[in-house]
Amino acid sequence: MRVELSLEKDSTLRVIMIGEIDHHAIGNERKNIDDFIKKNLPKLVVLDFSRVKFMDTSGIGLIIGRYKLACELKIKLAISNVPEGLKKIMRFSGIYSLNILQM
Fold it and tell me: What's residue 33's pLDDT?
């Protein structure tokens, strides 16, 4: 897994996740995302799943961790472009019951 981070003019941070999200690949990227959020303090963080091929429970942890950070910093969090195969995992995990925007 790798991520592309882009801060848009409206103070939206777009986090495009690429590849497979699993416990082997997530550690360093999680820190990069958090550091970028803390440094730039965007108004909205969008986790874009359009280029994710596979996700295990580590991906749920990634979302929940960024959700907690966003709540602490009073930033809105959104998930977008979730492939059909990942929606089931998110539904079972309870992600959709959190105050996370769906785009």
Answer: 97
What CATH number has the domain bearing residue 69? 3.30.750.24
Secondary structure in 3-state letters for the chain:
CEEEEEECCCCEEEEEEEEEECCCCCHHHHHHHHHHHHHHCCCEEEEEEEEEEEECHHHHHHHHHHHHHHHHHCCEEEEECCCHHHHHHHHHHCHHHCCCEEC
pTM: 0.94
Q: Which domain holds residue 33?
A: 2-102
Q: What is the pLDDT of residues 26-76, one digit of tens each?
A: 888 999 999 999 999 999 999 999 999 999 999 999 999 999 999 999 999
- Number of domain units in the chain: 1
